[in-house]
Structure formats: structure tokens, C-alpha cells
Amino acid sequence: MKYIPPLNFSPVVSTDVSLYRSGYPMPLNYSFIKHQLHLKTIIYIGDKDRPLEEYQSFLESEKIKYYHIFMDSSRDEGIQERMNQVLHLVLDVRNYPILVHSNKGKHRVGVVVGIIRKLLQGWSTAGICQEYGLFSGGMKDGVDLEFITMFETNLKIPRNVIPGFAKHCLYLNELEAAEGSDDESGSESILTAKQPI
Fold first, then answer.
1. Bridge pairing between strands 65-70 and 41-46
2. Of 13, 175, 179, 186, whose CB is crowded by the most CB atoms within 10 A?
3. In 62-141, where do the E strands start and end?
């Protein structure tokens, strides 16, 4: 059988867990998703109100959890909170394997992946910009890249659900936080945007 991945499909993380990015899956991609990815969760970052009917049927038949995080652009009001929602999903190992997709797999997913690269993988700004440009066909949206660079968060994440790939950056944050605190609760990690970029 021939498998066809969705537009702009690529792995983001493939270590202890699998996180993928893409454009909107079409029916010709469903076999690939079913037989190659074995997804538990799909996060749609976009402006469509609801999934297409056949897509909804596919999600239900495969028992894939579907989350819609509305995003028109990185200029949206409330975008900070929406990115935090995405991070909460990505930082819970029980949701994996995960596919994060937008309509074309370029700008909106590029913002999400850029934030993941920055906060959870310690990538440099140059690396994030280069990857963003590759998937957007060389069209680098200065507003998106500025949003990624300036993005800050302060999420509390239960330690027992954090995927292995994110633990190193979270550990570095804990060391920084511990220098100025006597709190030794130990049950949560705090995700901050303090990695050098």
C-alpha cells in the first residue's frame, strides 16, 4: 500500500515520544496517519470552526483526541493563552503520539513549532528562523518570528507527565528558579522562557 503524508509533514520530536507537524490532512492521507503514525492526539491550530465531516469521521473511527486551538495569526488577541494550551498538551506524555497541524503547515504551525524549539529544545533564534523559512517557502513573517522570540510563559507542569525530550530544558529552569527560592515542593516543574536564544 502506498502511504501519502499530509502537506508539509515532518517529525518535530522522535525520541521517547513522537510529535509531528503538517498541513490539514486530506482523505488520501488517512491511511498514512492510521498505519504509520498511530496518533493519540491531533491539535489543529487554525481558523476553521469544525473539522470537515469525513475528517471528523476518521478521527472518531481511530479514537484520536482532537483539539482545536483557534489562531488566525500571531497578532490574535489572547494568543498567549492559546499557546499555553498547546504547551500543556505537548507537555503531557499521555497525549502522544501527537500531530500538530494548521491549514497548510506553514505559518501557524511554524509559530507553535518555533515555541517548542525555543522552550523545550533550547534551539537558537537562527535555527528557528531557518526552519520557519523552510516550511513557509522562504516567506519569513517578521511578526511571527518576533512573537516566537518574545514569547514568555510561566506554566506549572506535573513532573510525572513531562516527556523526556523536554526534561533537560525544564531542569535548567528549575535550577535557575531554585537559586532564588526556598520552595521544595518537588511535584511540579515550571516552564519559563528563560533559555538563551
1. parallel
2. 13
3. 65-70, 98-101
* Residue 102 reports pLDDT greater than 50: yes
Question: Integer distance in angstroms from the first to the last C-alpha of the chain?
Answer: 43
At 4 the three-state DSSP class reads coil
Nearest to 166 by CA among 186, 191, 136: 191
Contacts of 90 (CB under 8 A, 6+ apart): 19, 43, 98, 100, 116, 120, 163, 166
Instruction: Kindly report the CATH number that applies to the domain delimited by 10-152.
Output: 3.90.190.10
| pTM, two decimal places | 0.89
Closest Cα to residue 191, out of 171, 170, 160?
A: 170
pLDDT, mean over the chain: 88
Q: Where are the domains of the chain?
A: 10-152
Q: How far, CA to CA in Å, does 41 sit from each of 2, 38, 132, 149, 180?
A: 23, 9, 23, 27, 37
- DSSP annotation of 5 reads P
pLDDT in tens, 132-164: 999 988 776 689 999 999 998 888 888 889 999
